[in-house]
Each structure stands twice: as C-alpha cells, then as structure tokens.
Amino acid sequence: MKIPSLAKAVLFPLSLIPLSEVKGDTKPVQTNQAQVSTNTLTKEHWYSALSTLNPNPISKLMLSIPSTIEESKYKINEIITDKSRMSEGCEAYYGVDTKGKARFYVVLCTEARTDSMLSIAYEQDQFEKGNIFPRSNDPNTPVAWVDAKKAGLDGVFLVYEKNNTYEVKYQFSSLIVTPKHSYVNPNYLINLQNELVKLPRSIRSELSKSGKYVLIAKNVEDAYYAYYPSWRAEDKWKGTDPTRPVYEFTKTGWRDNRKHANTGGLYVENYAIIPQTYTIYGTNTLYDYSNNKAEIRRVLFHELGHAFDDLYSSRFSDTAEFKATHSADIKKFSSEKKEKFKYFYNSTSELFAELFSSLFEGSPNAKDLLEDFPKSAEHIRQSVLPRYGVDISVDHIRKNIYPDYLKSPKDKGKTEIQKVSSLITIPDFPQEYMMAMNNDRRLELPLAENPYHKGNV
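Predicted structure:
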C-alpha cells in the first residue's frame, strides 16, 4: 500500500496534527521495513531508560509508570525523512506501531528546544474511537511509552492524553537549557543529550545540585552576544591575522588571538555555553557541531570539566595538592614539550578540565596528557572523583584510553591489547582549531544576572 504524502500536515509543537488534513490514503500504513522485535520489555526496562536521562535518581515521571506497562509500550516501525513528503518545519516522522489499530507519528521538528522538539500526527476519528492508544482520564499518566531508540535517543517518548488530544514529551537532562530567543538543529540537541548521559550519573547529579547548566543556542549571536552585547562590538574592531597562532606568548604573557565568534565553547559562571555553530579561527568557515558526536563530546566534557572544577568557592585546580602534582609533572619538560603543552603548562584550570575529559574518554588529547601529566591525572582519579562515587581503574584506562598508562618506560608497549578501543574520532581540521574551543573565560558579569538566561528552566 502506498505510504500517504505528509506534505500538507499542519504542525503545532506538542500539539495535534490531524491526519484528515493529509493527502493520500488514511488507512493504516504498511511498510516494507522488517517488523520490530516484540521481545518482552519489563517495567524495569522503562524505569532504567528514564533514569539514565535524569541526573537525579528519582524522577517524578517514575511515579507515573502505569501498572499495565506491558499494554502501554510501543515501538517505532517506520521512519520518514524525505523532505518532499513532510511539512515545512519537519526533520523526520517516526511511525509508531499501534498494534494494527491506527496511525500515529511522533514528529521531529527542525527548530528544536528542550521543551518543543516534538509534535504529533494522528487521525482524529481514530483517536475518538480509542483505536490509537487506550483512552485515559488521567492527564498525568502516559497512555503510551514509545521506545525512542530508532529516533536516535536513549529512553522513551511519553504520550499523554490531555484536553481531548495527545501530547508527546521526551525528558532531556535537566542540565541542558535553551534560551527563549533561540533554537538548535534537533540533531545537535539529540547528540548532545546522548553524549551528556555518558558521564556518570553521580557527576551529573552533583553538577545539577550545584546549579550548573549546559546552555546551547543556534549560533554565536544567540549564545554569546545576546548576553554580552559588548562582545559583538569587541569582535567588530578586533582584527584577525590568520598567520598568527591561536595562542602566543608575548611580553605581557599569553595572548588569545581569537574573537569571541571563534570560540566554540566556554564556561562562564555556572554555564557551559556551546553554540551550535561558530567561525573557525583565521577563516570565514562556519563550523557546525550538529552531526559530529566526537566534537560535541570533546567540547562538552571539557567545559563540564571546568564546571566540575568550579563546584565550590575554591576550585580543585587551585588547591595546593593539584598545583603540586602539576609542578611535578612539568618539572622536567623539555622546551619541545613546553611548546606542545603550552595551553596546559601555564594553566592548572585548563589542565584539570582536559584531564577530566580524558578520564571520561572525551578528549582526543587523552593519550598525550595521561602520558605526560600522570601525577595530575592520578590526583583527579584517586583523590577527587572517588568523593562522588566514581571509580576509574587503571585497567579501564589501559583498555579504553591509553594502554601504557602508568607503565615504566621499559614496560611500555608490552601489552596484549594491540588496539585501543576508542570512542573518539579526531576531527579533520588542524590542531589549533581543535584547541580553539578549550578556553575558560571568566567574566565579571555572571550570566545568572542576565534576565534572559533562564531559557526553559
């Protein structure tokens, strides 16, 4: 049977799209896709899926798990991404297997925010007859739990019946905020969510309790200039010489030659701000994070490393203990290593953030850093992370990050592991561009003082 055209569906975020307005056959859609496995999924499966998304161990949504969970779970069995078959403003249609009763689509919108990334499409007459999902008089209990894996997300889409229509929700991490004046590509939001939850739940919980956030926006204009208008003016008069390095040592100390528009991520007073796009230093090339999971993870983990360092009034990287390990690591550095690691050689804060990222497999520089800053890495691994219930073993590091970690020079290379299992792909652009986003710019004006910062929180 021909799949109906969806070109004239009308979209309303978190609202109704009557399929009666859609051209084509309105009977249940048959697809050529292999049917999704109907292996039994227990209540514990959905509890686990939801709990991975919330940094707090107990979510209000957990309390609304219906006792008839086996009757309320559904899967995606159809994916439509052909733009010619979708309404304007749509990125994808995910057809839900309603067990042969009627059609229902979770719609991914092109302009995404944590509170309005999804819309829905269904047949109103089928809804009224109760042929899509079981009717409900409780607006706080989901009538359907849709496995979101085929939409690229861990966890579930929750479908509610409210005010004689359906509403669909997905629980993003409470750490992510999008300002009211902006939006992002849904792939960026989805990929950032998926990378964020790879950090241990205890770390995310601590960041959340301490009021830390990841603020994302469409571009530099929405992410930086909206909060700090002076940055726009500063970028206009600040020239850029592409022949000069991103960082250079001058008579007055280290100098950052970038404009704010060249910064792909920064940490400012409780906020890791990561715009979806920024301009690569020394070029007019716009870089977009949306589909590069490795780069999202790299900059996200580094900036959250700064946020973690900043949990308390005094930073971990400012403690005498960490400064001592940093000094011990760089004590015998050659001039070549001083140049190679100049960014971390001169800043304990930057080293802490990048080692944090390295230990959680987020940094493409992990091997070099763990090799040349072992005492600093061990201080974080043994003295800092265990306070938050995180135990990263040496064996884990050797297996997944750097096989020769903490081995003596004579023992290096003597391992059964010939290939390191790596989750990170080093970007194709030059090293100075990779490093261009690792900057902790601490400003006098806290973001929290800006009336527009609250986004959808």
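Summary: The first helix runs from residue 43 to 51.
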